[in-house]
Design a protein that fits this description.
The chain has about 300 residues and is mostly helical. It is about 75% helix and about 0% strand. It has a two-stranded antiparallel ribbon with strand order 1-2. Helix 1 packs antiparallel against helix 4, helix 2 packs antiparallel against helix 3 and helix 2 runs parallel beside helix 4.
Length: about 300
């Protein structure tokens, strides 16, 4: 029941909606829910690497808020005067912080997309609409991890002949770095030519080209789409009642929190956490079945 085990169309529906909400909702509660859910899900998928990346986004958002408040002077609540004599207001500072949090949430959601959307899923979704564009996007997504792995191989090979990153004086290290970059670019260009020839030989440029697909839209996908539609209806109602937007200019005004507001926030939180909940449920079910199988094996061994 992992989220990537569902139909690619279902995955596309969820991520298109969650990215749209992350781009447009600036109400603090909804913004906090989007940021925390993206943080948790990316850490669930990528582990420590995602944790370090997400934590690095926090000071970046704060620095952007300070930069934004230094050059945008709307608002009525003055806080300080910067080094060039411009007044920093609380409204511009909070709005800059909201923009930084929105950008951070979008980047974390994109890191989740990079993990879940494989090459065959992209080709399946966009192959008939834009075959060349989908193929190019899939190749680019596939190239990023391959370039990283190849760079490590080149560095290890160069280190064996005395041209590693930490070998020699400063000028020698710079020359070695340029040599490694040159080797990597050469490999990348050769690989691009080989990939293009291979795809052309397979008929990727032919019109009305069909492709084999392993994806089937079954009852489980229909149930999840129905649940997503119910949650999207609730979130759309929240947007229609102006519960997802806040005003920062000239004064800060948030929508009044009522019982309906908390219901909308709960629906949005459940919508953003749905992929991680499905994965946790699948892991819990797998552990339960494994423990049950171990208990059955041990019990049968005692009887024999």
């Amino acid at each position: 029941m992992r989220f990537d085990s569902y139909h690619p169309g279902v995955n596309l529906l969820f991520f298109a909606a969650v990215l749209l909400f992350a781009f447009t909702f600036n109400q603090p509660v909804f913004l906090f829910l989007s940021w925390t859910c993206a943080f948790a899900y990316s850490v669930k998928l990528r582990g420590r690497r995602a944790l370090l990346f997400n934590l690095c986004l926090v000071p970046c958002a704060v620095l952007f808020a300070l930069f934004y408040a230094s050059y945008n002077h709307f608002g009525v609540t003055g806080l300080a005067v910067n080094w060039i004599g411009n007044e920093i207001t609380a409204e511009s500072l909070l709005y800059g912080l909201a923009l930084g949090a929105m950008a951070s949430a979008v980047m974390m959601w994109f890191s989740c997309i990079h993990v879940l959307f494989s090459t065959d899923r992209i080709v399946y979704l966009f192959g008939r609409i834009a075959s060349k564009g989908s193929l190019l996007l899939s190749i680019l997504l596939r190239t990023v991890p391959r370039v990283s792995a190849k760079a490590k191989q080149i560095a290890a090979a160069q280190q064996c002949i005395g041209r590693g990153p930490g070998q020699g004086n400063f000028l020698r290290r710079c020359a070695n770095a340029c040599r490694r970059v040159s080797i990597l670019i050469t490999w990348l260009l050769e690989n691009a030519v080989q990939t293009a020839d291979s795809m052309r030989s397979r008929g990727c440029t032919l019109k009305k080209r069909s492709a084999y697909s392993i994806y089937r839209f079954d009852g489980r996908d229909r149930a999840l789409v129905l649940l997503l539609c119910v949650l999207l209806t609730a979130i759309g109602a929240a947007a229609a009642f102006s519960q997802t937007f806040a005003q920062y200019d000239p004064i800060i005004q948030f929508p009044r929190m009522t019982a309906a507001s908390w219901f909308f926030c709960g629906a949005y939180a459940f919508f953003c956490l749905l992929p991680m909940l499905l994965q946790c449920l699948q892991e819990w079910s797998f552990d339960r079945q494994r423990k049950r199988a171990d208990f059955s094996n041990s019990h049968s061994g005692k009887q024999s």
